[in-house]
Amino acid sequence: MAITAPAVRRSRWAALVVLCAGFLMIILDQTIVTVALPSIQADLAFAPADLTWVVNAYLIAFGGLLLLAGRLGDLVGRRRVFLSGIAVFVLASLWCGLATDQTMLIIARFVQGAGGAVTSAVILGMIVTLFPDPRELGRAIGVYSFVGAGGASGGLLLGGVLTEALSWHWIFFVNVPLGILVAGAGLRLLEDDRGPGLRHGADATGALLVTAALMIGSYAIVKATDHGLGSGHTLGFGALALALLGAFLVRQATARTPLLPLRLFRSRSLSGGNLVLGLMLAGMFAQMFLGALYLQLVLGYTPVRIGLSYLPVPVAIGLLSVGASAPLNARFGPRRVAVAALVLIAAGLTLLGRAGVGGDYLTDVLPALLCLGIGGGLAFPALITIAMSGAEPEDSGLASGVNNTVQQVGGVLGLAVLATIAATRSADLIGRGADRLTALDGGYDAGFAAATGIVLTAAILGVVLLPRDIPHSRAR
After folding, report:
1. Are 33 and 108 contained in the same domain?
2. How far apart are the C-alpha atoms of 427 and 432, rounded to whole Å?
3. How many domains does the chain have?
4. Looking at the structure, do residues 138 and 230 belong to the same domain, yes or no?
5. 383-434 pLDDT, tens per residue?
């Protein structure tokens, strides 16, 4: 019996559900841990300086392996890499939940970050391959964008509920049944693609160089909040990461089978789209991190209330990314949509910076979150569409890894810079005699102002760098 076109479309969307469920699990884990950190600290007797490693161990592994995992997907099959990542992530999550001491938890978090990187690195490449039609691809990327935003915001709420109702162990245990379901569905619904094999791009030296560069760079970034952006520690490890990255690029220019063919970056769509996206996320991390701190430490919100307060962001992103982004991109072009959305995001960050010590949620916070949600719901799908359109089909897994690496590094770097700006400003205000709440609020205002500048820079670069039209035929 011949397979009908409707049946093919249904199978594609079923596969998208599987991919987005895996992506949701990874995104949830990145934010769900934040709310549980005080409980983890109390239970396992973490010193404040050591507690950051519960987050940093995950981020270093995640950021360091994305590019390598994306290329492996192209070479050995994206389905195989995706399912392998899910298996590692689930086992590491169980290990995290069973942790009884600091060392056990930190090592498990590193392994969990590796599993998260392997899983998420190939998802965009698989989506682009599944949906060759530009309109369907736009809707699929809209769903992907919504899942990312919803998972980031929902993690705050879910983390608060699980920690308060049960214990911090359950923020990790919840991944086990979800991961098993995703793996089972993936075995049935995802096409068993076969790559050309490792001999066509198994550059072991290049893999070692880029993984070391990204891990050391991630370490330098996440520890910058402790040592300072201009400290010898940050600059030294940053210089080492750049030197390794330079050696990697030289290797790729001369290797017979490079891990990352440099021809990929000749595409204006891929290079410009990723640069603008990275800057956007560097600025937008302020609304999640500094905004949550403002609600908790200045306005006195509980973790659960913070999660509820942020719900307008994923709701707005969902309505825009799933419903309106694809038609708007088709009507006006992704570049125009992205630039207009970036201006709206900058407006939302400006509004958050104006909320004071006595700020009111309905009048001061909610309008800002709506601007951020609407802007994110339009900008994220448009920029991903632009970036992924610049890759040939055989490179879509690698392009997915590049895109995820840019998102991760952009977010972490933005967080380090903005957190440092906020802390420095707060310390300066305290030194001048300001009370604690005023100093904290002043620091967050400075962080939001810097974030606004970053996003406006992204908007300007979007006008200059992004192509007016994208080559749809290559985005498949």
Report:
1. yes
2. 9
3. 2
4. no
5. 888 887 766 666 666 677 677 777 777 777 777 778 778 888 888 888 888 8
Where does a domain end: 225, 242, 258? 258
Question: What's the Cα-to-Cα distance from 120 to each of 60, 112, 161, 258, 457, rounded to whole Å?
Answer: 15, 12, 26, 22, 28
Note whether 240 and 279 are same-domain residues: no
Q: 238 with 355, same domain?
A: no
Same domain, 147 and 254: no
Backbone angles phi, psi at 356, to 5 degrees: -100, -165
The pTM of the full predicted model, rounded to 2 decimals, is 0.75
Same domain, 214 and 169: no
Looking at the predicted structure, is the pLDDT value of residue 263 above 90? no
- List Cβ neighbours of 106 (8 Å cut-off, separation of 6 or more): 53, 54, 57
* Domain enclosing residue 432, as ranges: 8-202+259-474
87 touches 26 (CB < 8 A)? no
Residue of 384, 388, 347, 387 lying closest to 368 (CA atoms): 347
Range 292-318 average pLDDT: 78
Cα(232)–Cα(240) distance, integer angstroms: 12
Residue 49 backbone class (left: φ over 0; alpha: ψ -120 to 50; beta: rest): alpha
Distance CA 426, CA 438 (A): 8
pLDDT of residue 474: 44
CB 195 within 8 A of CB 77: yes
Answer yes or no: are the C-beta atoms of 387 and 273 closer than 8 Å. yes
The reply to whether 225 and 343 lie within a common domain is no
CB 196, CB 100: distance < 8 Å: no
H or E element at residue 254: helix 232-254
CATH number at residue 142: 1.20.1250.20
Torsion of CA 362, 24, 30, 420, to 10 degrees: -50
Among candidate residues 69, 62, 114, 110, the one with its CA nearest the CA of residue 87 = 114
Three-class DSSP category at 360: coil
| Pair (314, 383) in one structural domain | yes
